[in-house]
Amino acid sequence: MSKNIKILIVCSLVLNILLIGFVTGDVSHRFFKVDSFRKKPPKLSVKLSPEKEKLFLDTIEKVRLENRSIRNQMKETREKIFSILIAPEFDETAYESEAKKLHELRGLMMQQLSNATKETAKQFNEEERKALAVYLKDSARSRRDISKDDRTH
């Protein structure tokens, strides 16, 4: 083989190895990122006493369970909205009615979270409330990142 062909083959092998590395690195990073957000909630920035930590986690779990039926209703309402959108004839009144219902359900869900946060915050000192605020902010950011990942995958 000539020297040029040997150089071409070596360069091709190196480039293919780099390409495989980039692809597997990107794919594994995406899977790790999504899984890590779904499996691990953000950590509290301040260590709470065991009873306050239990109160906080129980409150979050209670809100999550209370909102489960609302989330199911929201899913059904979104499906109705999509069926209205793809129907041969667009029914503006039905669309507005379902959209209004969806907004009300979202508001109810947020109101329940707000009330639970308020009741929990009443029992925390200033430092613990700061940790609660950071936790809620990070938790919301994690959910946004998950939903973005779900849209792109």
Structure report:
This protein has 153 residues and is mainly alpha-helical. It has 2 domains: 1-40; 44-152, Four Helix Bundle (Hemerythrin (Met), subunit A). The protein has helices at residues 3-39, 50-86, 92-122, 126-152. The two termini are 45 Å apart.
So, CATH architecture of the largest domain? Up-down Bundle
Query: Which of globular, elongated, flat, extended, rod-shaped describes the shape?
Result: flat
**Under CATH, the topology of the largest domain is which?**
Four Helix Bundle (Hemerythrin (Met), subunit A)
Distance between the termini: 45 Å
Largest sheet: none
Radius of gyration: 25 Å
What's the mean pLDDT score? Answer: 80
CATH class label of the largest domain: Mainly Alpha
Tell me the strand percentage band: under 5%
What's the number of structural domains? 2
What's the count of strands?
Answer: 0
Which structural class do you get from the secondary structure elements?
A: mainly alpha
Helicity, as a percent range? over 70%
Could you spell the SSE succession in H and E letters?
HHHH
Q: What ranges have pLDDT less than 50 throughout 5 or more consecutive residues?
A: 34-39, 149-153
Number of helices: 4
In short:
With 153 residues, the protein is mainly alpha-helical. Helices cover 86% and strands 0% of the residues.
Feature tags:
0% strand; 2 domains; 4 helices; mainly alpha; flat; Four Helix Bundle (Hemerythrin (Met), subunit A); 153 residues; disordered C terminus
List the helices and strands and how they pair.
Elements: H1 3-39, H2 50-86, H3 92-122, H4 126-152
Helix pairs in contact: 1-4, 2-3
